[in-house]
Structure prediction request, 316 residues.
Amino acid sequence: MQILNQIVVIMLNISLWSGRKKLRPEDLAANGIEADKLPPGTLASLGTKRIIAPEALNPFTTLKKEAERICLAKGVRFLGGFAIPKENIDDLVKELKEIKQRFQEAKDSLLKDYNKEVNKWIAENPPEWATVIRAAIEPVSTIDQALHFNFAPVVVGSPEGMEDKNEGLDEETDGLLGQLFHEIRMQAKTAFEASFIGRKEVTRKALRPIMSMKDKLQGLSFLDLEIAEAIQGIDQVMAKVPKTGPITGADLDMIAGLVGRRLANIGRPLPPEPESEAVAEETPAEDEDILETGTVLNLPPVSFTQKKRVPLVFDF
Prediction:
């Protein structure tokens, strides 16, 4: 359990209020829609009705995603939370406290203006539906209880006497490296599609996801020696990139290869070596142009190490 001594697990406890209530047959009947002609519940459901504009609730969704994003930037999903390197936990807690404060401020504002927001929503919709919306209005106390943001840093370990018998925790801990590689591959896929497909040049903004992936790998480098090799590979490529100006030509190909081949393939084994020269001749060339094809799915694998890795396939 040496790994567990180097991490703290952040547990997020965030609940949102949807601002919706179930749409009932009588709601439709009140507006002249014959409920007896609706399909049976086993075939279709009526869905929901909004009692407040979705824009009024957007800040809470945004803050929840922000909390999850900063946890993923520094750590990896683990036991329903996020495994964070101990050296990064203090800074992360400060950031989460700031988000929690903003969440509370947004909640206080919504509770204060709740009636005004509901009336505004009613006014924005056809008048014949006003009665239906008003009948579904939740009391402010319900909203107060529904909207919640909290977090807790937790140290994980086996109960006394179970240190050598906790197979489940051992398996989850052993899976941290695979989960880290999975998250890096997903991040690389997103970065490649957003910044490199079909582009003849990119700005230095395209390098930010690469540095973010490097920081995440660096913080969790104690999981496996291969992570240090991955970081070294990133540094070698980044050292060759021009310090200013747009990135084009061979430099762009080099960066695109780092993201779309190396990082998108991290942790995957290579296929077996060809059995003969004839077979080897049929193998696609390693310098296939990823920018012209617009996809990395058929590219030959490239690994940070000499370990066997599978062909590049994104996790989606």
